[in-house]
Amino acid sequence: QISLGSETNVTADVAMSTDITKLDEVIVTGVSGLTTRKQIGASIGSVNEEQLKSRSVTSVTEALQGQITGAHIMRNSGNPASSISVRLRGASTLLGSSEPLYMIDGVIINADPRSSVSLGSYTQNPLVDIDMSDIESIEVLKGPAASAIYGSLASNGIIQIITKKGKVGKPSIVVNTSVNFNSVSKTKPFNDTGLEWTDGTHTATQSVERYDWQDYIFDETMGTENSINVSGGTDKTKYLFSASYLYNEGILRNTSFDRKTFKVRINQELTDWLSVDAGTYYSTNISKEIPYGNAWTGNPMVALLFGDNVLDPSADEFGNYPNAGWSSNPYEDIDLLDISQKNNRLISDIVLKANPIKGLNLKYTFGYDYMASSGKFKIPYGFTSDTQGNISKTVVNKGILNSVFDASYKYKITDNISATTGAGYSYLYKRYESMGITSTSLPAFDNIDVVSGTITGFNGISEMAYWGGYIQQYFNFSDIFYLTLAGRMDGASLFGEDERQQFYPKVSGSFIVSDLDFWKTSIGDIANSFKLRGAWGQAGNLTVLENISGGYVTNTNYSTGSYAGGTTYYSSATAGNPNIRPERTSEMEFGFDASFLNSRIGFEFTYYNQNISDLVINKNLSPSTGYATVVENVGTMTNNGIELGLSAAIIRNKDIKWDLNFNYSKNTNLVTHVEGGRISFGGFGTSVAQTNQPLGVFYGYYAATDANGGIIPNAIGAPQQAMGHYEDQTLPDGEVIQVAVQDYDASGQPTGEVLKKVIGDPNPDFNLSLTNTFSYKNFSLRVMIDAVQGFDVFDWDKRIAYRYPGGHFYGQELVDNNYGFYQGQYSVYDQFVEDGSFVKLRDLSLSYNWRPKTKVIESIRFTASGSNLITWTNYWGFDSEVNYEGASNVSRGQDFGNIPIPRVFKFGIALKF
Fold first, then answer.
1. Is residue 304 situated within a structural domain?
2. What is the pLDDT of residues 197-243, one digit of tens each?
3. Rounded to an integer, what distance in angstroms lies between the CA atom of residue 154 and that of residue 686?
């Protein structure tokens, strides 16, 4: 039985085809009525249970890596619950999020990166709340051409998680248990060069030992995952109960993630035309954290960069840690900081389905996703870098309510033409509430929290609502040509009255050329299927307005203050704009799906083009207005690219099977207009949105070079910044940009103002993955190679450590440097931009399925797997896949104090009773 998504109104028993192109696979996302893949005019990705359970990962998004064309998925750190950035066909906004809309069984859920403690830009991935063993399949709609029916929420595409449900039959019990081992995949060459302290006359006086702090910061750790699933049912009643426990330790010492889940789902047929489907999923987890990345306080990864490893950071016999100088003591950070986050989450839904007359399908869905988070960050009394100590406690509650009604009617127009008319209305309500308190100057008692000293607090509440209706008309012409027309009208509380309603259209079609008689009689024996498809649609992005600080966009925000002993009011520096509207993405795509040689080989091709208009930015205002900025729709951007997929059943016989899957994706992003030509983002300000450049390029100082490209050193032999002037350049579309031009004095030295230019691009040229699955009798071996090529990383770690001449690293050798040498090279940025391209052995798994001759146990599956086992790269740092700015949309490819992604080995057993 298939339970359909929020825009689908039919429940039916379906047999899935084994065709490698999956043209007869049922699709439940973004459509109205029972629909197969061959009837849809847009490219839709899917991953089944078998593909998911072979991965050594704990989150849905990470399991999708390398399995969906057009998806660029990067894990932002090696922390056990860290956020993961997903881009489907490129970035779609400047100030908001480019993450797709997430749904579970047709219910929109909260997938915004979360954090209830102040750890810089580090955030958790809320999808780690979901038990992987509870997932049946995942469907991915990659852009507005497919997802326009969801209107103002879907410009970034949709990822729909379809969970397991009860089936007709006797009770079935599945028990999974596994253990995993985590280790750091790469360490940096630490400074082990012998050092002797000297007096002022270079006379050696004392030998000094070196310490590799990485030996303590990183740890070889373990984890375990256990789950049980009980399901069964009759023709009238079907049920499923599941529970799971996961515990995973991070490779950064003293970090971990502990999760427990419980789920119940019941499907009851009340009459022969009315049924109810209800489910509740509960998850509770707690994580132990250590700062890293751009969280400076108590960050052992920063201490590793700035510290001098002639220091033994261990505590003495009295428990006192030595002062590490410019940085904190990494051992003290790990041993004494008390940082944790706890999350309780409830996802519930109830679905009523009715088929009162033939062809008419009615469906009502009510869903609720509530997340209660709390965080604690405690620096104890006597901590070296904060002797008085402090503690912060924060509570964050987030709730999303869904209410959706869908109706569809299927009918015949002629003997050769059938149609389905669908319509629906939805209401979505969000409420976010946060509060916290901080206390400084703690007493010298470890069991006391917020009690004394300077106490400060905060609280905030935000509410927003979205509503809208759609109509969709579907035509089937002789089961050969399919046409879909749709439109959605959306409203949102975030906008002023004039822009509150927005319309989003969609049209798509598919043509099954291989079902024509001429094809069947000519090349049908070789080319078994061939489908042409095309789609166009629009969708919106509201994440910018949801995330703007203060929450007031259409109206000016006023705050209370005091003056001359009385109460007064003062306005925000940001002026309100009642004409603000959602960012809008228009997408056109076309392509084909084909299979050959008895459907043993399948090929998929898609070309897409996106035009993104009404990008929201903070526009600077003249001081005479009384405001500094105003939020306006004044930016444009494009994405275009291709997606290739190849599937082949290379060997098929009684005992041996060999399946191959190859995915290739290439996206080209271009910011075509931003107000003022350039906007800087991120803590270091080097990531920019700049006209006529891809989003997020690095903009910074670069080395002065001569006419042949050689570096021009200064008087003491150090590189120096390029100098000169800027010239206006007019682009073919009329946009005017500034181009840096170097100038030189009579001696050939740079002169003029210090110059900046684009020095790197974190957007990859292409992604590809190759998966081979080999089966021999009951054995199965799966090997996935994942590659991301042609992207740059700004290596801030290297910038801190590097010294001229000869490329020496901080503290490694005694080097005679003239005054000003260090400062000269430090401010020349382009030398620290590196190629981050990599090829990874992303996944390797070996399984054995055994069916014992017993009535109690139906099957046993043994699995040994590994992830991120080998990385081939020229990148100097720990891992080019992580990001200093966490889940930031624009500031990508920044490496500073990051935790590398661990190498994982996992061993598991699954028993089915």
1. no
2. 444 444 445 566 778 888 888 999 999 999 999 999 999 999 999 99
3. 29
Q: Model's pTM, two decimal places?
A: 0.89
> How far are the Cα atoms of 124, 339, 384, 473 from residue 378, in angstroms, in the given order?
19, 6, 14, 58
Q: Is residue 320 part of a domain?
A: no
User: With bands split at pLDDT 50, 70 and 90, how would you rate the model's confidence at 18?
Assistant: very low
Closest to 76 measured CA to CA, from 87, 89, 88: 87
**HSE-up of residue 13 (Cα within 13 Å, Cβ side):** 3
Task: Say if CB 245 and CB 179 are below 8 A apart.
Answer: no
Q: Is residue 690 in some structural domain?
A: yes
User: Is residue 740 domain-shared with residue 814, that is, in the same domain?
Assistant: yes
Nearest C-alpha neighbor of 218 from the set 184, 188, 190: 184
pLDDT tens, 27-40? 666 555 557 778 88
Residues 701 and 612 reside in one and the same domain: no
Query: Is residue 273 scored above 60 in pLDDT?
Result: yes
Whether cis (ω within 30° of 0) applies to the bond prior to 113 is no
Shared domain for 367 and 424, answered yes or no, is: yes
Q: Is a pLDDT exceeding 90 seen at residue 307? A: no
Residues 249 and 382 in one domain: yes
Of 775, 808, 833, which residue constitutes the final position of a domain? 833
Average pLDDT over every residue of 449-465:
76
Q: Does one domain contain both 380 and 281?
A: yes
Same domain, 812 and 866: no
Report d(CA 847, CA 486) in Å as an integer. 45
CATH code (residue 161): 2.40.170.20
Task: Return the SS3 of 874.
Answer: coil
Query: What H or E segment, with its residue span, contains residue 824?
Result: helix 821-826
How many domains does the chain fold into? Answer: 2
Can you give 756-823 as a three-state secondary structure string? EEEEECCCCCEEEEEEEEEEECCEEEEEEEEEEECCEEEEHHHHHHEECCCCEECCCCCCCCCCCHHH
Picking from 269, 290, 191, the residue whose alpha carbon sits closest to that of residue 808 is 191
- For 739-781, write each residue's pLDDT tens digit: 999 999 999 999 999 999 999 999 999 999 999 999 999 999 9
Longest CA pairwise span in the chain (Å)? 102
In a domain, 3, yes or no: no
Question: Which position has the token pair 């609280």?
Answer: 459
How many residues appear in the chain? Answer: 913
- DSSP at 129: G
Q: Are residues 416 and 547 in the same domain?
A: yes
Computed over every residue of the chain, the mean pLDDT equals 85
- Ramachandran angles phi, psi of 677, nearest 5°: 90, -25
* pLDDT above 50: residue 817: no
Q: What is the pLDDT at residue 843?
A: 93
Q: Mean per-residue pLDDT for 469-492?
A: 93
Provide the token pair at 136: 């049946």
Domain of residue 60 covers 26-187+217-298+337-675+764-791+836-912
- Would the pLDDT of 19 be above 60? no
In whole angstroms, what is the distance from residue 250 CA to residue 376 CA? 19
Are 770 and 812 found together in one domain? no
Find out whether 395 and 420 touch, Cβ atoms under 8 Å: no
